[in-house]
Specification:
The complex is a heterodimer of chains A (about 180) and B (about 100). Helix content of chain A is about 75%, strand content about 0%. Chain A has about 180 residues and is mainly α. Chain A has two domains: about 90 residues, NADH-ubiquinone/plastoquinone oxidoreductase chain 6, subunit NuoJ (Four Helix Bundle (Hemerythrin (Met), subunit A)), CATH 1.20.120; about 55 residues, no CATH class. The radius of gyration of chain A is 22 Å and the shape is globular. Chain B has one domain: Helix Hairpins (Orthogonal Bundle). Chain B contains three helices and no strands. In chain B, helix 1 runs antiparallel to helix 2. Chain B is elongated, with a radius of gyration of 18 Å. Chain B starts with 6 loop residues before the first helix and ends in a 13-residue tail after the last helix. Classes of the chains: A mainly alpha (about 180), B mainly alpha (about 100). Chains A and B meet through helix 1, helix 2, helix 3, helix 4 and helix 5 of A and helix 1, helix 2 and helix 3 of B.
């Protein structure tokens, strides 16, 4: 096996094992750290696929941003030595069956289907190409979703501030009257 | 350049991650752990997009940008969800979904 394949196997094992930890761990902070490991291993997969920019985005935004946000909210809302109750056996069995059935259906479909690759020459994904296509209004341009995302981020930011502000805005309006 | 790792390996790995996320979504009772399951699901979809882009359409960048936008939406979603969770915690002093059972009081 060459280096790439060995790295892929390592990342795949890390992803599967830590994903299972994330959904079964009875201590919430351990679950969050497992999620961090999954996200970092995913960034490794992006490096194997040769998408360096997206791997960097994954590391800074997901592993750096979202996981820190989740850990902060855990520290604000939970007791750290608290252990979740064991999930009922019936619920575990039925959820596992549903997930397993879905996985088997998807996996058999993937293995049966033969994928036909496009014969176009591989495009090198560097910062110049990414920047030019993000702000391009032409055929291969993504300026519209880019602008939509910026509006969405502003809306999410304002929404988060309004919701998390002390006291609900509805109550304050009523008390003002 | 990608010889040695078939496309199917990526797809199987991503679907395993997706259904582990679904399992967590069904069994968890804490709002934050449910949010973490959703992050797993979104992440597996990103792997799919990038693998398809690299293997089947190497001359285009659609999958690359789609997963970039998915990451941005996931960040916005996480921020709003955590604001809601903190607000719920303030009112109910718990974030267990089964104890949060009144819309207005």
């Amino acid at each position: 096996m060459e280096g790439k394949q060995i790295m892929f196997v390592i990342f795949a094992i890390v992803i599967v094992v830590f994903s299972i930890f994330t959904v079964t761990s009875r201590k919430i902070l351990r679950a969050a750290v497992s999620l961090l490991m999954v996200l970092i291993a995913t960034a490794g997969l992006y490096f194997i696929l040769n998408y360096q920019f997206l791997a960097a985005v994954q590391l800074t935004l997901y592993a750096g941003g979202i996981v820190v946000l989740i850990i902060f909210s855990i520290l604000l809302t939970s007791q750290l030595d608290h252990k979740f109750e064991v999930v009922e056996l019936k619920k575990t069995i039925f959820s596992a069956l549903a997930a397993l059935a879905g996985f088997i259906v998807v996996a058999t479909t993937i293995l049966k289907h033969t994928f036909e690759a496009d014969t176009a020459a591989a495009l090198e994904v560097n910062m110049e190409v990414i920047g030019k296509s993000l702000l391009n209004t032409g055929a291969d341009g993504y300026v519209l979703p880019f602008e939509l995302i910026s509006v969405l981020l502003v809306a999410a930011m304002i929404g988060a501030i309004v919701i998390a502000k002390k006291g609900s805005p509805v109550k304050e309006e009523k008390s003002n009257k | 350049m990608n010889q040695g790792i078939p496309l199917e390996y990526y797809l199987i790995l991503a679907s395993a991650m997706f259904f582990i996320g679904v399992y967590g979504f069904l069994t968890r009772r804490n709002l934050i752990t449910i949010l973490m399951s959703v992050e797993l699901i979104l992440n597996s979809v990103n792997i799919n997009f990038l693998a398809f882009n690299r293997y089947l359409f190497p001359g285009k960048l659609d999958g690359h940008f789609f997963s970039l936008f998915v990451i941005a939406v996931a960040a916005a979603e996480a921020a709003v969800a955590i604001a809601i969770i903190i607000n719920i915690y303030r009112r109910f002093t718990t974030i267990n979904v089964e104890d949060v059972n009144s819309l207005k009081y």
